[in-house]
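Priority: medium. Attachment 1 of 2:
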């Protein structure tokens, strides 16, 4: 054992004997939040027809959720630190379930959009509370690896599971069940967490809430996510798009300035300036840009070009789910205590990029079994292997009082990455499709050759982003094996520094 392990106090409390049962219910809550980002996508055409939502407004069913979720995550993370993670977790679950019930019972577009925004608000409280509970519950290196392996697999595979579940519920029940299903998840998670989830009182943050930080961070992140949404809708050069990006840059710059000077910051800069945590946030955020864009194109390709039903589209994503679970639990969790994190994250992102590279060869008549299935599996293995150490690094070495906001940062990088990926790659695909039509003197906007060409060009960009994410991880992340680190928990460091052994 290295000398740095002695940072933890000798009288550190024994691990909670109920911690593995607690993990089950924390994981269920995480699955509910992650799959909700995609479960509604497949149900959206049916909801649109049923509630007479216009084409111009249908994007708001997705955007209302991502704006509220992405914009309020840091606030939610700090509330969890101040209020108590278990309390924030349970309130988040109950609120998410109620918002889902309202959404499922919607009688018009306004009611559905309001419910989706409310889901985002409670999701922003729930997601960081779940990850920070995990961070302070599992502090022993080997157990932490297993716990984060399971959590990472769920975080990574949840989007694909959402496509499968959304397809099945829409085809065999009703689009409303894509929302009602959350009530079942929430009831199980609340009941289990009341019994098995435990939090130490001395790990709470007793400082007052940084209101200027909350306002600047929330408005800055909302402007950023909305900017990418408007770019997809109105173009990158439109005055509204540029104005939103400028506003976001100004607000987030002011946020950094305020956080560096206030006594009790919403986001202590030590959380993000640590190169290992910063590398995890950046690397995972970039990887999500590529992955979420790919979800979108594969759904279009399988349903629009291959004419798969919603259920068959979901089933077609299963190799990616299997790959993610394998990468997280069998590769990441087994190797995390043996090799430095960058040698899991970096190569994992390269393998994911290789899977994407295969998909650049998609044609209208491509064979699912020989091209799409192996590409999805490689993407899943790579992302699963990367997710797990990234989740663990995101809270590694933070003071227990900062665990919620550190957890919120990894969720923020995922949420903002997903919004950017969807808007950026969709815009690139649409441009490439238009260029193909012009070059081939065609006016058929539904030409499948043009559409697939657009997907291929956008996927090339996703490959480049994934390679860059891998490079960033290799450069920034330099933590040694996890047993050499101070981890979040009752033994985490109490000063602003973060002692880690450099590898």
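Attachment 2 of 2:
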């Amino acid at each position: 054992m290295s000398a740095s392990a002695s940072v933890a106090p000798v009288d550190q409390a024994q691990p909670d004997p109920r911690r593995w049962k607690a993990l089950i219910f924390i994981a269920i809550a995480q699955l509910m939040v992650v799959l909700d980002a995609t479960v509604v996508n497949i149900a959206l055409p049916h909801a649109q027809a049923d509630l007479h939502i216009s084409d111009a407004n249908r994007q708001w069913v997705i955007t209302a959720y991502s704006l509220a979720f992405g914009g309020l995550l840091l606030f939610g993370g700090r509330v969890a630190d101040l209020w108590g993670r278990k309390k924030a977790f349970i309130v988040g679950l109950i609120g998410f379930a109620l918002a889902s019930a309202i959404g499922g019972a919607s009688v018009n577009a306004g009611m559905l959009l309001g419910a989706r925004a409310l889901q985002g608000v409670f999701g922003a409280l729930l997601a960081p509370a779940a990850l920070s509970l995990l961070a302070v519950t599992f502090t022993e290196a080997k157990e932490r690896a297993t716990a984060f392996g399971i959590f990472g697999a769920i975080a990574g595979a949840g989007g694909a599971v959402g496509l499968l579940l959304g397809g099945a519920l829409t085809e065999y029940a009703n689009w409303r069940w894509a929302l009602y299903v959350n009530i079942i998840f929430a009831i199980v998670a609340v009941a289990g967490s009341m019994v098995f989830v435990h939090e130490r009182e001395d790990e709470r943050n007793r400082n007052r809430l940084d209101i200027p930080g909350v306002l600047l961070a929330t408005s800055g992140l909302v402007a950023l996510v909305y900017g990418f949404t408007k770019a997809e809708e109105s173009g990158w050069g439109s005055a509204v798009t540029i104005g939103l990006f400028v506003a976001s840059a100004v607000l987030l710059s002011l946020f950094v300035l305020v956080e560096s000077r206030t006594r009790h910051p919403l986001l202590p800069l030590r959380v993000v300036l640590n190169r290992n945590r910063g590398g995890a946030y950046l690397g995972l955020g970039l990887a999500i840009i590529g992955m979420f864009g790919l979800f979108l194109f594969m759904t279009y390709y399988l349903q629009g070009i291959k004419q798969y039903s919603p259920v068959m589209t979901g089933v077609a994503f299963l190799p990616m789910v299997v790959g993610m679970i394998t990468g997280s639990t069998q590769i990441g969790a087994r190797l995390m205590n043996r090799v430095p994190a960058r040698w899991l994250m970096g190569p994992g992102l390269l393998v994911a990029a290789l899977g994407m590279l295969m998909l650049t060869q998609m044609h209208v008549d491509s064979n699912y079994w020989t091209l799409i299935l192996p590409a999805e599996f490689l993407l899943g293995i790579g992302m699963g292997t990367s997710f797990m150490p990234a989740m663990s690094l995101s809270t590694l070495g933070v003071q227990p009082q900062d665990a919620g906001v550190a957890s919120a940062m990894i969720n923020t990088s995922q949420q903002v990455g997903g919004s950017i990926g969807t808007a950026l790659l969709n815009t690139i695909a649409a441009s490439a499709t238009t260029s193909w039509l012009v070059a081939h003197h065609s006016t058929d906007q539904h030409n499948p050759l043009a559409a697939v060409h657009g997907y291929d060009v956008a996927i090339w960009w996703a490959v480049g982003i994934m390679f860059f994410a891998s490079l960033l991880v290799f450069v920034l992340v330099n933590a040694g094996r996890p047993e050499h680190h101070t981890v979040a928990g009752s033994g985490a460091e109490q000063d602003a520094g973060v002692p880690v052994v450099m590898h």
